[in-house]
Amino acid sequence: MIISNEVPLSIFKAKSSHFNLIDMKKLHFKILSVFMALAMLAAQTHSLSAKPLNMGVPSVDESVFSLDETALDAAFAGLDKLDQYLDENQGTTFSELKESGSELVAGLSDMAAPMGAAAGGDIPLGIPAFWWGCILGWVGILLIYIFTDNDKEAVKKSFYGCLVGTLLGVGIYVVALGGDGI
């Protein structure tokens, strides 16, 4: 009988591949843990040793942020007079006062413009209709339709913006993927 020091590899093949995968996974987790610990240590050390930056913050007039009730009352005095007049004369409307040229409604408008909606032909939030359509797509067209009260010219511009945005998106997709997806 011949005794050899060599052990056939086929006996350990199945077990060794299984153990190698587990060992490799553990090794990767250990390396990742050490790396993350060193990164945290470096970040903490850097934040403790970093010098404060004096960027020269511009001075701010803090009086802008305080409420001046007398100025507020003075600004709303005209509206208070109008409200009091309308309470005393129940049948009177804003339109009637405007037609008669009353001083109570001088400089006031009867159009409400909530949430930055267009008032007096202005564009919503100062953003042109084309960009609403280009960036937000059909949602931008819908918002322009609602905010401008169906201004056909603005809706058309937002539609062209949507069309350009869609064509740009498709063009970038084709260039990025080389046409494989189409």
**In total, how many beta strands?**
0
What sequence of helices (H) and strands (E) makes up the elements?
A: HHHHHHH
Major sheet characteristics: none
Rg from Cα: 36 Å
| N-to-C span | 70 Å
- SS field, number of helical segments: 7
Sequence stretches where pLDDT stays below 50 over 5 or more residues: 114-118
> What does the average pLDDT come to?
76
Q: What shape does the CA trace take?
A: flat
- What structural class do you assign from the helix and strand content? mainly alpha
Report the sheet-strand fraction: under 5%
Helix percent band: 55-70%
List keywords for this structure.
single chain
Question: Can you offer a commentary on this structure?
Answer:
This protein is mainly α and 182 residues long. Among the domains are: 36 residues, no CATH class; 57 residues, no CATH class. Helices cover 59% and strands 0% of the residues. The protein has 7 helices and no strands. Helix 5 runs parallel beside helix 7. The protein is flat and about 115 Å long.
